Amino acid sequence: MLRIIIQKAAARLDTVVLQKILESFVIHVRIKNVFAGIDATGFGHGQSSYCYTKRAKLRRKFVKLSICADMKKQIICTVKIRHRQRHDGIDFEPLLKKTNSILPIDTIVADKGYDSEKNHVAASNLGITSIIPPRYADVPVYKTRGHYRKMLKRKGYDHKSYHQRNKTETIFSVIKRMFGDNVTSRKISTQNRELMYRVITYNVYRITRDCLLILYDFYTAFFHR
Fold first, then answer.
1. How far apart are CA 15 and CA 12, in angstroms?
2. Which of the residue ranges 60-64, 173-177, 186-190 would you say has the lowest mean pLDDT?
3. What is the mean pLDDT of residues 209-215?
4. Structural domains of the chain, ranges and CATH numbers in brackets
5. β-strand 75-82 against 34-44: which pairing, if any?
6. Mean pLDDT value across residues 162-171
7. Over the range 87-118, which residues count as b (16 or more CB within 10 Å of their CB) and which as e?
């Protein structure tokens, strides 16, 4: 009976409410300046198995999840879910602005898939340092378009800060290991909610995990002196 009540309650919550819940985690962990990373990954869906779709030469459907997360705490701040194949860069600015409206972002890192002068300008207008390596490193500076993209080629960038971006891959890996890399819902609205619940559950896991580690360190320091 309790399971049915929970399922009905979950089905009635829309993504706006779930986004507010997601934002509350960022405020809860008290991050002063967000060191943000943006990335995207795909989740398969449909009733046919991967082997069947490959054998039958069918186009496998997927849902794309784009996130903006804090690299220090590995907490997801905002998400964007798409059901059509679009370039990753189209979600950079909306995610950046939405996260910055919750808490100020100090630095944003993203891979070469987000390389665009427009994205650098969007970050600069908000007073955010953007580290997005330009594509086609062998192309000379004078042939590279855009002030910020040319500046990155001339002056370079902090590779240590940029490689913090790898933590977005860790976040996706944890989510997929915990819940799988496929969504089971049929409707688009329920698929969106399903992914939002996974993201919220991941944030809960991160926060409680950190608390448990602190308690464990306290226990070992106090009782094993």
1. 10
2. 60-64
3. 61
4. 2-219 (3.30.420.10)
5. unpaired
6. 93
7. ebbebbbebbbbbbebbebebbbbbeebbbee
